[in-house]
Amino acid sequence: MGNRITDLFGIQYPIIQAGMVWASGWRLASAVSNAGGLGIIGAGSMYPEVLREHIEKCKLATNKPFGVNVPMLYPDLEKLMEIIVELDVKIVFTSAGNPKTWTTYLKDRGIIVVHVVSSVKFALKAEEAGVDAIVAEGFEAGGHNGRDETTTLTLIPAVKEKISIPLIAAGGIATGRSMLAVMVLGADGVQVGSRFVASNEASSHPLFKQKVVEAGEGATQLTLKELAPVRLIKNKFYSDIQKAYAGCATVEELKSLLGRARAKKGMFEGDMEEGELEIGQVAAIIHEIKPAAQIVMDMMEEFTIAKAEVKHL
């Protein structure tokens, strides 16, 4: 299928794999790209030389387009961007920061730039900054999230109404039916995170993948808004956060509780109790760990079936 997103990226299907911390290495990105979607390397958990290694390995593993996601709240941004330019990466997704900071720099070097937002206000700022497309991410999403708790169902048509550039929907999308739903609301494509965490190629720990497929309704909660809102699976670490709130913890006390490398401890090293386990609400309908290519094919097959069914309504 062809539309503004497939044309922009030069891909077969308008399915973008999210650049998730500790999950989105070169194996996952190349597998999604080879399957016809757009694979994304998540630079948020990578030192500059680690990013270099992942880009080089991804280029060897696929001849299809792929991109890099760069959360702008991390250090070493200049080094990351220099490596992206040096290695001729064609697509960059930026998030968690002001799109004006890097958009012109990247576009002047021939790179397609997409920015992730959680509100109409920031979608307009991103369009004004000159990005080529926008990811609008609803409250259902995993990882770091918007403070306003706007759901995908509300956010997508609200953003669509105000912007003219291509729109990618994110948050709560793991099936072909949910893909069709957000495209009916105005999205040109979808960004999928949690579903790809539970894939064979994701670099996250096997215990975390299993935790995702075991998660049921209500297993996650958005928390730590005072620092950076994040949706977590409820475990001992999450319970410690709740106890801290009950004790009227200060921002500094919350920072101390979070500490360093908490996400790495959980999602990459496999500590299911003391680690930070970031995942979306849609984990409740993810029941199996699959190859990334199978996830793409399943989504497109279900999308096609659902689209045909809608014609009969």
Structure write-up:
The mean pLDDT is 95. This protein is 42% helix and 15% strand. The protein has two domains: 4-203 and 283-310, Aldolase class I (TIM Barrel); 216-282, no CATH class. It has helices spanning 4-9, 26-34, 48-61, 77-86, 103-107, 120-129, 152-160, 176-184, 194-197, 206-214, 236-246, 251-258, 262-268, 292-310; strands at 15-17, 39-42, 66-71, 91-95, 112-117, 133-137, 143-144, 167-170, 189-192, 220-223, 230-233. Strand 3, helix 4 and strand 4 (91-95) form a beta-alpha-beta unit. The protein has 14 helices and eleven strands. The strands form two sheets. It has an eight-stranded parallel sheet with strand order 1-9-8-6-5-4-3-2. Strands 7-11-10 form a three-stranded antiparallel sheet, with no helix packed on it. Helix 3 (48-61) runs parallel beside helix 4 and helix 8 crosses helix 14. It is an alpha/beta fold and 313 residues long. The longest helix is centred in the last third of the chain and has 19 residues, at 292-310.
